[in-house]
Amino acid sequence: MSNLQMLYLNDNSLTLKLSHDWVPPFQLKSLSLASCKIGPHFPKWLQTQNQLISLDVSNNGISDAVPDWFWDLSIELVFLNLSNNQIRGKLPDLSFLRYDDIVIDVSSNHFWGPIPPLPSNSTFLNLSKNKFSGSITFLCSIIKNTWNFFDLSSNLLSGGLPDCWLNFDSLSILNLANNSFSGKIPDSMGFLHNIQTLSLHSNRLTGELPSSLKNCSQLRVLDLRENALYGEIPTWIGGSLQNLNILSLKSNNFHGNIPFQLCHLALIQVLDLSLNNISGNMPKCFNNFSAMTREKSSNPIIGLADKIWILPSYLDNVLLTWKGSEYEYKRKIPLGTQLQSFNASVYAGNLELCGLPLANMCPDEESTPSPGTDDDSNTLEDEDDQFITRGFYVSSILGFFVGFWGVCGTLMLNRSWRHGYYNFLTGSPGDGILSLIFRVLISFLETF
């Protein structure tokens, strides 16, 4: 197949066993091996492929470092996905990638060190779930960019958030969560006019919410939980951010009343104000949050539709606390809670609600039985069946005969005990059914 240019083997369980010095007879332009098994070493035969513009080797079991020669041939790449491996080492300067609408996903690996210079002509940049450290002040050196998606969450980043977000007006999703960022939320984040998801949770941010955020009217997810933010909950959230689906201010230092303006959030599906210093009355209009009964919609796939490769998708989610434990929320009945113990009738009328105990299973729900399901009931019944064996019945019958004749036989053979017990029963004030039975029994034994 010397003329082969595009090879897609992704999303299978294939294992590619190739010799170390194999030289392909073709020059590929697009290659996708996602979820195939090609690790633990980085595939050396890719060194011969100098025309690649799209490469997906995600979830391949690679635990090697990326060799230097790979970055030399990557200059033509427009799509690069190395995610969900155990690749280690540092990322080089990626600003040399020269084409527009570049997609880079290196998430869920062991890359470390400072964030390298990034291409300003990217569309999708995902560097999350690695070990990158240091600050992100380098962002202020990027004057013009085309970023739609930028995810640095779950790293070891620290320092203050840069105050130059007016240069990132095209951002739709910004996720800086689960790092060690400190200081205040910069006012310039109000220039993110196209932002739909802003996730800054699990950091060390302080101060009040900047009023400039009310300009981010396209926001659907605002997740600021687990920081040290303080002040009163701003009233402008309800007036200016009416597209919100998720608002989480959990585990901060907010105080004061819950503003009734939050009732204007007609699309809200998750509202978490727990673990703050909030006081006062609950707004009565909270019972109007009808959107909480509907399935949560996901963000659209970011990127261009005319490309030949499949762009990574992004599904918003949030952690909810049930009985002191956190569960990931995607679309309403959370597993592992008492909600499965309720009768299905209590959820009647919510036609799009899915998950146990309803018969309507969620699309991504696994078939593994959950606590309280019929499978568990069958298991308990099986265990009961194993316990009630023939020996159980035999021992029960023997126990009855020994107990019964141990009492009745003694009274039958010993007339003086029989008379004494009869006199005791007839002379006692109690006239319960047990006493009556014994008096009849002793009268019967007197006939022998």
TrEMBL record:
Keywords of the record: Cell membrane, Glycoprotein, Leucine-rich repeat, Membrane, Receptor, Repeat, Signal, Transmembrane, Transmembrane helix
Q: Where in the cell is it found?
A: Cell membrane
Q: Membrane topology per the record?
A: Single-pass type I membrane protein
Transmembrane stretches in the record are 392-413, 420-442
Has the keyword Plastid been applied to this entry?
A: no
Matching entries from InterPro entries are given as: Leu-rich_rpt, LRR_dom_sf, RLP23-like
Question: What GO CC terms are in its UniProt record?
Answer: plasma membrane
* PROSITE patterns membership: LRR
Q: Does the keyword Disulfide bond apply?
A: no
Family membership: Belongs to the RLP family.
Q: What is this protein called?
A: Leucine-rich repeat-containing N-terminal plant-type domain-containing protein
> Which species is this record about?
Citrus unshiu (Satsuma mandarin)
